[in-house]
Design a protein that fits this description.
Length: 193
């Protein structure tokens, strides 16, 4: 099974990335893991030209967005992580998602038909870290908003949600809690069931 990790944290040792690596660590070596640090991509924003709809390919000049979209399309499972930025995902992850629309769902050229999810029945997990502690982290303007944004993408792609992690109070942490590590192990198992 090919499992793609999309890490949208600009910091390589962030709590978002640490939780994602904990999931990866708990996967059997028989699975192939691909990892994309979204912030390192050379990526132009979507211009909403809609020209991707007739042929399912972005028509912008080639950049890292084309390769990332191909990896999303060809993955068997997806783990998406982003720190919470004002109750949402990071800008670079949003840009990648917009550019990768046709890697998640098929849309007719007219754009008037209901999109068809491409990853029906595949598994996905979502992870965020936010600086505020519980119960405030559950507000839509905090970590819950970032999880909801990622879940919208997961649902559009037809994935089954294998689980989510919110690392709240990240500003005061020195390491991941045993609860988060245990949850990461559970998600790893759920991804490959």
């Amino acid at each position: 099974m090919r499992i793609l990790f999309l890490n949208a944290s600009p910091r390589k040792k962030s709590y978002t990335a640490m939780a994602m690596r904990e999931i990866a660590k708990n996967l059997s070596p028989v699975h192939h893991i691909d990892w994309i640090d979204v912030n390192s991509l050379n990526l132009s924003p979507c211009i909403s030209c809609l020209k991707c709809r007739p042929n399912n390919k972005c028509v912008l000049p080639p950049d890292d967005g084309h390769k990332a979209a191909e990896m999303i399309y060809n993955s068997d499972a997806l783990v998406m992580g982003s720190p919470t930025y004002f109750g949402n995902i990071t800008g670079p992850l949003k840009t990648l998602i917009d550019r990768s629309l046709t890697a998640f769902e098929e849309i007719a050229a007219s754009g008037l038909e209901i999109p068809v999810p491409i990853h029906q029945g595949q598994k996905a997990a979502i992870i965020t870290a936010c600086n505020i502690t519980a119960p405030m982290s559950a507000l839509p303007t905090q970590g819950a908003g970032a999880l909801a944004a990622m879940e919208t993408v997961i649902n559009a792609g037809g994935y089954d949600l294998a689980g989510s992690i919110m690392v709240d109070g990240a500003a005061a942490l020195t390491e991941l809690s045993s609860d988060i590590k245990e949850r990461a192990g559970e998600i790893a198992l759920a991804l490959v069931r």
